Amino acid sequence: MFKNTLLASALGLSVYALATGAQAGHRPVGWYVAAEGGANWIDNADVSFNSGFQIEAEFESGWALFAEVGYRWENNWRLELESGWRENDVDCVNFGGGCIPGNFGEVSQFTQMINLMHDIDISEKTAISIGLGFGGNFVDVDVPGLWDDDDFVLAGQALLQLTHQLTDRLDFVMTYRYMTSEDPEFRIFPPSSVEFDNENHTVSIGLRFDLQADAAPAMEQPVTTMAPPPPPPNEPKQFIVYFGFNKAHLDAKAIEVVREAAATAQRVGYASILVTGHTDTVGSSAYNNRLSLRRARAVSKALVAEGIPSKGITSVGKGETELLVQTGDREIEPRNRRATIDIN
Fold first, then answer.
1. For residue 147, what are the CA distances in angstroms to 99, 106, 183?
2. Which end of the chain is more exposed for a tag (fewer CB within 10 A), N or C?
């Protein structure tokens, strides 16, 4: 069961990766940490004694805690190390004539996993993720007054996760984990031993924190002329909106610039408005082209919200081809992460 589950999950994730590997979104790039807590359920387990005797154990709902540290690449793949703790009490034992309740002890599990995850953007701030984890499981069974033993076995898990961005560096996460392991084996009264099936379902919520802070742009004010009177309608006026690292949404300062641009266009009149998105040189050219277009569209959407008709706005993305500050490849430069608003 353990091997079949992992092979099927690995095949499914591989097919997905081939089908969507070219897609990339706006998730932050770099190191992160996370913490989660929730509930754990263990499927009814066949408990087998080495003498050939077999019973079935049922478990109460338990609790679980997780801590992760990981790294995310620009193509939305993530690799993380995860430690987890699960604890469940035995609810009752079936000897063949019905389930008999009683104090049959508790099962504690300490897992150490390496998870491979892939994020799928479904909106500007929300993503779903699928993943696989492999590692080990330290299982401890304590039956009061009878025996207490532990075993370390191989384990694997499949993950489905929902992420929503709360701030530039903080995400809310909700995760479902299906975790299974090799059957742990325990000594009762040597040479007697017992082993049981171990399949778990866990639902948890928590927070993920991006360890890489966005560099503050050196300039945040629109570039304007010094002459007091407004320019004639046929003279272009340009405003610059800056973005955080690998971001395509507008912060409070960016919205102020958009509002000033919209007010200027409505006051002096215009024939057209061109919004051009740009990036720095971090990331591939194809990824930066997509990111620059998302930035341009975000600014255009904000202009429409300020009363500018969408039919008068054109949005284009230039990627890293028109740098405001010339840099080498893969260099972070806040002034290059921008979108320009040209009023004509």
1. 21, 11, 18
2. N
